[in-house]
């Protein structure tokens, strides 16, 4: 029988450069978090798929995902499907993600969306620590309910945090707080909410300049009923999206990624195989 306090799971990955390839040099895992074998569709970069075999998270579950990328290493992490956070009977689910990239390292964090079912209670915190000339391209996509079946996140709460630092100095620090039951005005339809749109997403890319921002804007195809803004904070390019469905966001973000990858990382986009399934 599952403990009332929920499951605890942790995975810690270390990537290093070995010869002409990046390898998964070390893996530590506890509980139901694991990875598939590494793929090398473009030669040097290590493509790795993060798996959560239970298929969903409930109240009381605690997940920790850590990744360290060494100098000269290049890791691309994605997931085979959406993360699902189910209705809670009262306990809070927690997921903490901490990524560290050394000087000269590259990390691409490109997961599928996270779905919050009505009644879910979630704390999700992502922290990225960069050193020196480390590079990052990543995104987080949140689906509040399942709009494909007209389901809305009309009860529950979530706190979503994102912090990016370079050499111990903050580049971006933000938090989204939703508590539909206690403060309806912070929900999807409130004046300070999300315009009634259930999909909210953020893409970030480091090492960008004004020309990269203009190129990314030009690469984005027009989508009706879709709000997308791109801006540059020093060398951090930030794209934010609000939408009624997940698919247009994925389409837009992948277009931006395909545009920025050769400009910022010096490599043409090589989509993970799992995206085609």
Automatic annotation (TrEMBL):
Keywords: Chaperone, Cytoplasm, Nickel insertion. InterPro entries: UreD. Pfam families: UreD. One of its GO terms (molecular function) is nickel cation binding. GO terms for cellular component: cytoplasm. Its main location: cytoplasm. It comes from the Bacteria. The keyword Hydrolase does not apply. It is found in: Cytoplasm. UreD, UreF and UreG form a complex that acts as a GTP-hydrolysis-dependent molecular chaperone, activating the urease apoprotein by helping to assemble the nickel containing metallocenter of UreC. The UreE protein probably delivers the nickel. PANTHER family: UREASE ACCESSORY PROTEIN D. Required for maturation of urease via the functional incorporation of the urease nickel metallocenter. Belongs to the UreD family. This is Urease accessory protein UreD. The gene is ureD.
